[in-house]
Design brief:
The protein has about 325 residues and is α/β, with parallel strands linked by helices. It contains 13 helices and 14 strands.
Length: about 325
Amino acid sequence: MTAPAADVAGTPRRGPTPLAGRRVTVLGLGTFGGGEAVARFLVAEGARVTVSDAKSPEQLAGPVAALAGLPIAWSLGGHREADVLEADLVVKNPAIPPDAPWVVRAREAGVPLTSELVLALERLERPFAVVTGSKGKTTTATLLGAMAGAVVAGNNERPLLAALPALPPGAPVVLEVSSFMAEDVARARREGATLPRPRAVVLTHLEPEHLNWHGTLEAYYEAKLSLLDLGPEQVLVPAGHAELVALAGARRGGARLLRAALDAALDAAPAGPPPDVRVEGGVAVLDLGAGGPPEALFPLAALRLLGRHNRVNALLAA
């Protein structure tokens, strides 16, 4: 018998959120595919599904047409109190901030909230890596997927819930995660969800973004860094980003911290060790400090993306 997957503490994961027969409201259908994937998944799981969105049917014509024929109750052009406060579960669009009025009201009424990514992670039984950052996450996730033969999902407009049924046998998963999605994952864990451990979390870059949504720079950084609380085996950061190296180092727990750089002389701290992933003689190498020679990863000339930032993205992925 296969042992159950473990959460970050090593204890068996609880089962996924039960859905069959429950009244579930999708709060925010959106136009990027996540809400559509959630609605389709919930119907397949036997939930009684309502889709609620402030946008009009005309604004949501594409996803509404894609879901035509499914047993879904529609509430478009505004949210109705009963759809939110009388639901057994609300699946919130990640673009809706946690202080949005209907989210606050649902929490005050004791209505459980979750997200597409949390529902998917509860059901993910494959090795996976997480890629996040203010810049470079899509490129890095795409490169990592190509290098590892992995399915890339998440913030790249391919929801993980939609990808799960069609995962090739044995294929790992790369998740591109936005700060909005990371916030939902962190809240779910605080409220008792047990989620699988990633093999790695890659933090490509941090700079002020989405402050109108998160409220403060500290809250935005916290959303990104909270992904390290999933207990990854490795954390990868660019060596040239001193603040990110320090923040990740303080938050990594028992994970191995690996620093990637284009050139050790440029990116390493003067008194510190050279980056673990660097370029020597035109070849990207990995040096785990085990005493032997660095492991060759790929010749830099093989990378056809332009720009120093893309070379760093490739080193993080490799």
